[in-house]
Amino acid sequence: MTRIGLAVAALIVAAVLADYVALLWGASGTDLASLAADSYLRHVIGFTILQATLSALLALLGAIPAARALARQSDFPGRQLILQFCALPMVMPSVAAIFGIVAIYGRSGYLAGLAAQLGSGWMPNIYGLTGILIAHVFFNLPLAIRLLLPAWGTVPAESWRLAAQLGMNSRQIFRLIELPLLRQYVPAAFAFVFILCFLSFAVVLTLGGGPRATTLEVAIYQALRMDFDLARGGALALLQTLICLLLVGVAWAVSRRLDFGRGVLNAGIRMDGAGRGAQLRDFATIALAIAFVALPIVALLFDGLRGLLVARFDAGPTARATLVTLALGLPSGIIATALGYAIAAAVDRLRRRRGAVMLIGAAGLSGIIASPMAIGAGITLGLTGRVDLFAIAPVGVIAMNALLTLPFATGVLLPAIARINQQYDRLCAGLGLSGWNRFRVVDWPLLRRSIGLACGLASAAAMGDLTAIALFGNPSLTNLTLLLYQQIAAYRLDSASGTALILLALCLGTFAAIERGVGFRGVS
After folding, report:
1. Is the sign of the CA dihedral 348, 354, 360, 362 positive or negative?
2. Is the per-residue pLDDT at 77 higher than 80?
């Protein structure tokens, strides 16, 4: 498996490098001086950085108190359900979630209706920077909570006991224990959320509202798909990739964690959260965070059911788009899981060989290091005039989505494979088990839960992705995500509400079916 992993990593890196060779070739016809003097491009770059910075700041400002409240109230009923709910936006199709956000915060949304009933003249404006920030916080607030919450688990139980014996109040505990801890975790979480918002496509394309709220990712799409300016699209893709490499380097540099030393336990009872006042504050904080995430989902469910049952709903295009969604999403998830397994197994085997690990790690993170639109731009530039892009569009969508979801699969499988290798390597060596026999007898029963989770997550993410299908889609290749975007753009909101609910149900159902189907009888 190590050789297979190395071969897979080498092929992925070679494919990405070939993609950028095509970008360089396409950008060679661009006047770099005029590009550098382009005031609109400078505005796009500035807005891209601004919205990503504000989105990450707002997500973390909400996540820190919510994660702290969940850490302090570690034994209340429903806590595990809340943590599972925080994973829901990660597998939700972005365009479907955006529809729910518009249903709450739009000009005809529920908040506007409530304001009108109260006699207020206030009218929300969901399009532009405001809508982009709301959507990014919706997606990344739960993610930031899950990223920050494990930090409190690293504090030994004796630290909490000592704080209680010294009579430290909540403010003193935050200043002396939690703040140093957050200084180690927050920069890495901020960098990760910033990169996700920097590369955001569906949110900006749908809620941007015009040229004043355009990011580099959308500008590349407009240059390739709207203007068919391949040279400008290639130059913008290269510029974005350079910025992404810088951001990934910064994220790697700041992703250090504070070591509290080995304690008797990794968690302990906190006396500062036991009082009635502290409990009320913590529960109010948790409720606010959950309400912010839950309201668009509830609105999506309500409007979706109404669109299916009451409004005029065209089932023909939706049925065809559903089949296309499954035909493109399932192969993408399976390919991403197979590649992720090979990469994760090779990384664990070669963890002491830094050069090999860096090569394989670059392949596993290629969907983040190389922006999605940059990959699509390279494919378009490299194949235009050589093959019929419409004919190979399904292959392009599947390959691009597999690459984009590869980091999800690798991230799920790597810790599971490392844990199993640490526990069973010596036993398998003593029994002479290797290769296929070891995978069949040992690895598969122990890893099938993680494999099911990785495949379900990758498949659901591929089904809900808009980037690849927006670039390669055509009238004969329209999935539910593209259909929903077209309905929203045409203000066919009744049809869009039903499509959004079907897309959400399909992604969540596929995720649950694959996770349970593959992971059934797996060893936990």
Report:
1. positive
2. no
